[in-house]
Amino acid sequence: MLFPNQYSSEATNFKESFISFDAKNNIMTNHKTIKKEIGTYFEEFIPETIIYHATSKTIFESDNNLFSLLTMNHHPVHTNADYASKQQHGKPLVVGTLVFSLIVGISVPDISGKAIANLMYENVDHLAPVFIGDTLYAKTKILEVRPSKSKPDRGIVYVETTGYNQDNVEVLRFRRKVLIKKKTN
User: Fold this and answer.
1) How far is the C-alpha of 63 from the C-alpha of 77, rounded, in Å?
2) Axis-axis angle for helices 61-70, 96-107 (nearest 10)
3) Which domains does the chain show, CATH number per domain?
4) pLDDT tens, position by position, for the chain (185 residues)?
């Protein structure tokens, strides 16, 4: 149970302060909340840095089925276990554009969370198959950072992101340029 702490003067460096009461142990605790923002400002990107993203995603059959339906991709290698069992990999493959979307999404908090726009994607390479039950992770290498030539409040960050599975097998790689706002002008 959380209560706003109206009487605390200790909340100067925090957004709010709360008092919680643990009835089981009869303990009252003063909690501070910290507001975190998504993304990285332009000035914080350093070329050659590799970021291992904290987010990951295990792909469930429902993810693959829903994505197939939403995107009108009805190829039976993604949606028909009998058909897929008679193909090269012997089981359904996760739709490649779902893998791409997930790896982009995993990188958002660190790479494009402060983006003004994604300017381009290039070299989307599917390196290995992805199956239902695989867990995807991602890492991004900062390739180039340059200020905008036309607007001083932003810059362009060029990155290469690699997705890999629970066995450390690289499954996807792509590059993109992102227009990112600066912290200061």
Assistant:
1) 15
2) 110
3) 2-33 (no CATH), 42-181 (3.10.129.10)
4) 344 444 444 434 444 555 566 666 666 666 677 777 899 999 999 999 999 999 999 999 999 999 999 999 999 999 999 999 999 999 999 999 999 999 999 999 999 999 999 999 999 999 999 999 999 999 999 999 999 999 999 999 999 999 999 999 999 999 999 999 999 75
